[in-house]
Amino acid sequence: MGIDKSEFSNIWTAIQKWMKKRHLTSLQLAGLTGVSENYIQKGIANKNEWITSDFLHNCIDAFVLTSARQRGTEDLSDVFTDEECIDALTVILDEEK
């Protein structure tokens, strides 16, 4: 499926807001998601850094957003579609409007 490049800016903005809300540094998020701290810092700074499906799903786990969709015992990030992950991450953007 893939993540549309036009969504990168909103996703990175949401990631930055979740980091602040969860009191996570870029180094801590890097450790939780398996990417480099530099990658996260570049993504937040320029909002154009490529986002993989794996990183997106790992962010859902890192920010503890798996309860965004009720699925009982299957309520794990690996059963979310990319679009559901994007929706769960970017909900924080709507909260501030």
Write the layout of secondary structure elements.
Blueprint lengths: L7 H15 L3 H8 L3 H10 L6 H10 L19 H14 L2
Helix pairs in contact: 1-5, 2-3, 4-5
Number of helices: 5
Residue-averaged pLDDT? 88
CATH class: Mainly Alpha
Share of helix among residues?
55-70%
Order of helices and strands: HHHHH
Summarize the structure.
By secondary structure, the chain is mainly alpha-helical. Helices cover 59% and strands 0% of the residues. The protein has one domain: 434 Repressor (Amino-terminal Domain).
Structural notes for this entry:
The chain is an all-alpha fold. The protein has a single domain, classed as lambda repressor-like DNA-binding domains (434 Repressor (Amino-terminal Domain)). Helix content is 59%, strand content 0%. It is built from five helices and no strands. The chain has helices spanning 8-22, 26-33, 37-46, 53-62, 82-95. The longest helix is centred in the N-terminal third of the chain and has 15 residues, at 8-22. The radius of gyration is 12 Å and the shape is globular. The chain starts with 7 loop residues before the first helix and ends with a helix. The mean pLDDT is 88.
List keywords for this structure.
97 residues, mainly alpha, 434 Repressor (Amino-terminal Domain), 5 helices, 0% strand
